[in-house]
């Protein structure tokens, strides 16, 4: 009975089981992981990756990938700090500039992919390179400015006993999850990812759906970039790099298929938690950076294999 | 081995008076004298032979990559030095864009352009060796600086000694803690040899009472250091000191302590303005907070240029010029801190505040 329930849970949302299991293992190895302060710390830090990965989920669901998220995060950090200049009165224009820039990047990605039929991995990788180069040119290698004190609250403050960044992340992600489940647009994204030709024949405006998906992906990366900017308060040209790989890892560990059409935004919440938990655990347990990379790589491969096995058992 | 001390700007300093450091309003020339004159550079007894060349010179500089703040400051100060000497030489800069093989091609291009001297900051300490040897064979003096090049197939080197820098900050941290306490260490990019050498130097200075809880990579980025430190804070109830080879690591780690409502502890770093500003703002509230920093002077490139000019005028120069690490701590940080400039500025620079403002805008 209990075993059956456990196996249902494992099949429906294996990543949540993995999140809990990893935490248990981590806590056994290092009891410090059980401190409430450390749990809140993990939630606070996951928020940045979580938002970027939510956007990445949309790209993967359409059967594509968005490797420009790293550049978008860096661009956001640079624009936000250079427009804000540490002044509270300039928060609104700074945030608006970032959102507009993000939307433009996403729409250009979408047009390259949907209209000009450039492979998503190439289009977004090229965009990533352009954005990083633009950040270098814009700053001349010497970024200036700073985030405003009032703005930093969303990255460093807390509300209702929870980190403000985590609240932003969960609320926004649940909103996206709802849209994916309950709106026509959401169903279209899944349809395009499952079979673009079939979707088009059924009357789905596939091009617009792709453009919208990449625009949303970039916008969510902007939001993630704003959160990490509020967390650190300073510009940094290398700030986005970490998201290039980890955003894809979080989505894949969450069970979204790289082939498109299969997966969910809520599972990516767990995927992002898993990745951050793992980094945090390896930090606390004194694992070297090299070993961290190896573990991360092994887990990507393992999770894809595991999902395939679970998937085939489920349909059998 | 004896090291002869070469005071870079003795003449200028005598002219200005010794008390001038850090007091006068900086104009270009004065600031120039100030930063280099207060430094000591150890020249090796082994000398490199000069070659007399006449006419207007062309000096090539193969920059391994550009784009971070330090490189930008370094390149800008080299360009203003070249501008001030526009009658004597032209500076030709090529950018390797972080690519090892592109830099080798860059150097070969400079050789075929027949430059009179060749400066470089190598992307790889080994990959540039054959190219520099080729330059030497073509009669072009080669002057790598900032990062070392393997072997001896170059003319003169200018830089710092990471081991000695690490020993200086390590000694300072050991002193702050009275030789007893639990510390964490944060380094730069994973696997980089600079951090490894600094850390090796630091460890030689720790008393037996210093316990190293953890050594982590933080990529010289505030955000990474803050995230890593937040984990370390959870893992270790007592952290008495933070050793870092970069000021961004220290600033990020200290901000994590602030976020966790823990009192600030002694930390080490380099000449990252953000760390000095943080120390200035927080030292009153945190009696245990101390800093011990050693800079990586962004005027190394200017010394390299002057060395090239010397060699080309037929003078001999020391084969190795190693800049002495000078400790920046609570007693002298105000001479370096630039309160009105961004955190990202590396303050041991020849650039004036005006030039820096222009650069960081």
From TrEMBL, chain B:
Recall the GO molecular function terms of this protein's record: carbohydrate binding
Biological source species: Lichenifustis flavocetrariae
Q: Name one GO cellular component term.
A: cell envelope
Q: Which Pfam family name is an example for this entry?
A: Peripla_BP_4
**What is the protein name stated in its UniProt record?**
ABC transporter substrate-binding protein
Q: Which PROSITE patterns match?
A: TAT
The organism's taxonomy opens as: Bacteria, Pseudomonadati, Pseudomonadota, Alphaproteobacteria, Hyphomicrobiales
Which SUPFAM superfamilies does this UniProt record tie to the protein? Periplasmic binding protein-like I (SSF53822)
Compartments reported by the entry: Cell envelope
Q: Which family does it belong to?
A: Belongs to the bacterial solute-binding protein 2 family.
**InterPro entries attached to this UniProt entry:** Peripla_BP_I, SBP_2_dom, TAT_signal
Q: Which UniProt keywords apply?
A: Signal
Q: Which domain of life is it from?
A: Bacteria
């Amino acid at each position: 009975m209990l075993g059956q329930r456990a196996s249902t849970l494992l099949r429906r949302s294996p990543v949540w089981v993995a999140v809990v299991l990893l935490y248990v293992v981590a806590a056994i190895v290092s009891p410090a992981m059980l401190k409430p302060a450390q749990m809140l710390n993990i939630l606070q830090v996951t928020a940045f990756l979580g938002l970027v990965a939510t956007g990445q989920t949309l790209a993967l669901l359409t059967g594509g990938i968005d490797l420009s998220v790293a550049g978008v995060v860096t661009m956001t950090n640079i624009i936000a700090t250079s427009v804000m200049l540490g002044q509270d009165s300039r928060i609104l224009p700074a945030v608006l500039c970032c959102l507009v820039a993000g939307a433009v990047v996403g729409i250009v990605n979408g047009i390259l992919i949907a209209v000009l039929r450039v492979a998503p991995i190439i289009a977004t990788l090229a965009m990533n390179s352009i954005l990083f180069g633009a950040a270098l040119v814009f700053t001349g290698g010497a970024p200036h400015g700073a985030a405003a004190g009032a703005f930093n609250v969303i990255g460093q403050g807390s509300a209702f006993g929870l980190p403000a960044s985590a609240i932003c992340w969960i609320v926004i992600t649940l909103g996206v999850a709802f849209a994916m489940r309950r709106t026509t647009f959401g169903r279209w994204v899944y349809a395009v990812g499952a079979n673009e030709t079939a979707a088009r024949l059924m009357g789905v405006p596939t091009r617009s759906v792709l453009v919208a998906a990449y625009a949303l992906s970039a916008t969510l990366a902007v939001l993630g970039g704003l959160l990490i900017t509020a967390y650190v308060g300073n510009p940094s040209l290398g700030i986005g790099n970490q998201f290039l790989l980890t955003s894809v890892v979080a989505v894949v560990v969450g069970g979204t298929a790289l082939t498109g059409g299969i997966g969910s935004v809520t599972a990516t919440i767990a995927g992002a938690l898993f990745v951050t938990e793992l980094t945090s655990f390896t930090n606390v347990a004194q694992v070297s950076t090299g070993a961290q990379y190896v573990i991360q790589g092994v887990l990507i491969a393992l999770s894809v294999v595991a999902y395939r096995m679970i998937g085939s058992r489920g349909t059998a | 081995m004896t090291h002869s001390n070469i005071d870079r700007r003795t003449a200028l300093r005598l002219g200005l008076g010794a008390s001038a450091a850090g007091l006068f309003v900086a104009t270009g020339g004065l600031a120039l004298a100030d930063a280099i004159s207060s430094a000591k550079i150890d020249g090796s007894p082994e000398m490199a032979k000069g070659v007399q060349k006449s006419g207007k010179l062309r000096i090539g500089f193969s920059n391994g990559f550009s784009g971070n703040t330090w490189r930008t400051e370094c390149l800008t100060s080299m360009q203003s030095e070249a501008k001030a000497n526009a009658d004597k030489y032209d500076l030709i800069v090529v950018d390797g864009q972080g690519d090892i093989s592109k830099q080798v091609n860059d150097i070969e291009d400079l050789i075929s352009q027949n430059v009179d001297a060749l400066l470089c900051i190598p992307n790889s300490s080994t990959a540039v060796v054959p190219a520099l040897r080729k330059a030497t064979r073509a009669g072009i003096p080669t002057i790598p600086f900032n990062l070392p090049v393997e072997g001896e197939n170059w003319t003169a080197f200018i830089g710092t000694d990471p081991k000695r820098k690490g020993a200086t900050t390590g000694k300072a941290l050991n002193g702050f803690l009275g030789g007893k306490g639990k510390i964490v260490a944060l380094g730069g990019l994973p696997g980089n040899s600079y951090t490894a050498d600094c850390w090796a130097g630091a460890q030689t200075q720790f008393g037996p009472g210093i316990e190293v809880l953890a050594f982590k990579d933080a990529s010289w980025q505030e955000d990474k250091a803050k995230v890593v430190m937040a984990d370390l804070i959870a893992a270790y109830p007592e952290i008495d000191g933070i050793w870092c080879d970069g000021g961004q690591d220290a600033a990020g780690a200290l901000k994590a302590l602030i976020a966790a409502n823990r009192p600030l502890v002694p930390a080490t770093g380099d000449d990252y303005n953000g760390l000095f500003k943080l120390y200035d703002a927080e030292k009153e509230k945190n009696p245990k907070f101390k800093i011990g920093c050693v800079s990586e002077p962004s005027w190394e490139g200017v010394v390299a240029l002057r060395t090239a000019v010397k060699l080309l005028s037929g003078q001999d120069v020391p084969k190795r010029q190693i800049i002495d690490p000078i400790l920046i701590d609570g007693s002298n940080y105000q001479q370096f801190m630039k309160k009105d400039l961004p955190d990202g500025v590396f303050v041991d620079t020849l650039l004036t505040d005006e030039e820096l403002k222009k650069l960081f805008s």
